[in-house]
């Protein structure tokens, strides 16, 4: 890093020399409502150009004393010319430059929060950016029925989400695995902590969309961005200090279709202000969202020949609560600014779950009573500043800390906080119509030569069969324990910008991150000690119908609920466990704990340091051509601590491994603008993805009897990608865009699970099961976008419009022990969005369709055994009526078509999981100024 430090005095010296001869001009572009980001500000007759930032601010440097004509252009607004006189005092503050709507029709549309205003803000930022970005503003987010940060970005071309209980959770760019993309908060990658995830993907269901001011998606990285993002970067920009007194409040109530007795509600309050002298500004934002939810689910579990040996009918109900609190303050200095911000976000999911498991292979029915509270909490703190050095240089810095934590709540108690399961079994069940093809008694779908339809599974029970709580014995109590905490103890960065002249700009920077991740796991099974008395049966408890019994999979036409058993209350079961713990015995064979060599891949700690340095140059060659090029170097040092287990000796041994590597990441961006409304863009970049935390675990379990070692691989190499992006875009004066692009990625060292023959503890010929780097893979695709009002058809249709985008992708990768090639995991072939809207000065409405094609979740021994996440198409609706310039009422309805989540094996007629969420809606009121 030290060899970069000589650049500081080298760049400061010329800035001091020119400061006496040139000056800097600053200002803010606004309209009558708010600042305008993405405005183009140019000095006529020169190549001096600037673009306003997300607060509408701009800066022009190295202007010699004299008179100039400043020209400001913005889609949807009249160009404005401002005469300015620059003297030799170094800084000219222009204050606010207020733009006027282009014509009366647009002026009508300039209503706070209007659909076309949100589109206008986003397209101007995209048009005048020198790199390939897509932007969503808070105005546009407010017009979409999207409640968390993940859902807010699913409308962007090439961006998709993965869902949990019908809500967006993980974000993916161009169909690549979520862990191959980066999700950042104000430019900093966010720590991960999630119940079942040992990857680097960040779950965003805990982060309310009301806390976001802008979302910026970058599909081709620049050297000043963190380079660990093969697919792209999604940057969530939180609200910053207010420029004037601001107040906003909204509240809503609603319901989930599948939870008739539940009530949903949300509220958000925001207040900001600035002192009279304009020096100090602040903003505070608080929100909550509570919803009662329910889902119906079925999951056929399959044998090695695709036969169904177990059918699970799952009935979920629960209450989710999302809380958010953020604040920011900014103090204006004479030569820059200082700022501080903090945020807190949490998701609490209190889940009740009854599961009937039909064990065809065991001739029994298992009834599981499940209760748990999943809690995710994240805190973040940022302190930074920006300082002008002369009129040609600036320096910005930031110190940040983030903590993300997942743990279970106090169910069944604080001492046993876990995913709490109590199972009762009814044995000697006479199933009908099963087959034994050498795997035991299984059911088979029609596609596999059986009789079961692929749409609605059969329980293979006689129509008159009834479950008997008096014969259903307590099988076991399970305590499934997970706790994950990831901390970015310190994220420190500094960036230096210097304008060599009015067309060539340099930027250099350093960034350091110190990360820790602690993961603890145990899966404990307890059986009743029959020496303490007879095994309890389900009839010993007070029984009732499970909450969702009466309408479970009602559209199937199959009377599943008619054969369900009554169930016990989970609170009563928790109390029973607490009172009778001494009557249970830990079942070592079923349990997975460190003490018996289980869960080694889930019990490990990570200490990781990232050190990055970059340099880049931006060159306005002329009014039409722009070039950006540079290099980023990132050093990663990872230390992973875990355990090995010697099966034959029943002995646990501590293990520790380290890995260091340097990532060299060049980038080149070229932009050609043949006219004011068109851009051609080309990007050649290199990016990477660090191995998942779980893959790095040093934990290993060795069995001499089986001659087998199962472990992680701390020596994995990162996955790299060489990327090519080409894009054409044309913007319309009345606010719209048409664009088309193609992209290609050559991916090196992707990671697979593999079996190799190797050495262990001085012994050779050991079968080692662990993740390995594989052969190269490639991905290619195309994107199309069209956003426009229908004014081109007839001016009477100017209040109607459409927004549509389509992404097509394909990929190829080789797999160990398979002769065929396959798609990259989690890469869908198609993504598309279509929205139709109406928008005038009183009423706006939008219906939005979002589609993600099916993709391979995990590879099997052949294509027929690949596990797929099924295609998902959601249709949502939102509408807003303006009561007054400050007040609105709104309606949001999600999942109008009750689209199910589906997994399948090889073919849709071989389901693995199907889950229905129902329609949900909210009716609300908002007020603000």
Number of strands: 51
Proportion of residues in helical segments:
under 10%
Q: What would the average pLDDT be, to the nearest integer?
A: 88
Structural class: mainly beta
Which terms summarize this structure?
33-stranded mixed beta sheet; five-stranded mixed beta sheet; 929 residues; globular; 56% strand; 6% helix; 51 strands; mainly beta
Provide a compact summary of the structure.
This protein has 929 residues and is mainly β. A hairpin with a 2-residue loop joins strand 18 (308-333) and strand 19.
Structure description:
- By secondary structure, the protein is mainly beta.
- The strands form seven sheets. It has a 33-stranded mixed sheet that branches. Strands 8-13-14-11-12 form a five-stranded mixed sheet. The protein has a four-stranded antiparallel sheet with strand order 3-2-5-6.
- The two termini are 48 Å apart.
Would you spell out the secondary-structure blueprint of this structure?
Elements: H1 7-19, E1 23-30, E2 40-43, E3 49-51, E4 57-63, E5 66-73, E6 80-86, E7 91-98, H2 104-109, H3 115-128, E8 133-137, H4 138-141, H5 149-152, E9 159-164, E10 167-173, E11 182-185, E12 188-189, E13 212-218, E14 233-238, E15 246-256, E16 264-274, E17 280-302, E18 308-333, E19 336-359, E20 364-389, E21 393-408, E22 419-427, E23 435-436, E24 441-442, E25 473-499, E26 504-528, E27 543-544, E28 567-568, H6 570-580, E29 584-586, E30 604-620, E31 625-646, E32 651-675, E33 678-689, H7 693-696, E34 700-703, E35 708-711, E36 719-732, E37 736-748, E38 751-760, E39 763-773, E40 777-789, E41 800-814, E42 821-822, E43 830-839, E44 843-852, E45 855-858, E46 867-869, E47 872-884, E48 887-894, E49 901-905, E50 911-916, E51 920-928
Parallel strand pairs: 1-7, 11-14, 31-34, 35-39
Antiparallel strand pairs: 1-4, 2-3, 2-5, 5-6, 8-13, 9-10, 11-12, 13-14, 15-16, 15-51, 16-17, 17-18, 17-50, 18-19, 19-20, 20-21, 20-22, 21-25, 22-25, 23-24, 25-26, 26-29, 26-30, 27-28, 30-31, 31-32, 32-33, 33-36, 34-35, 36-37, 37-40, 38-39, 40-41, 41-42, 41-43, 43-44, 44-47, 45-46, 46-49, 47-48, ...
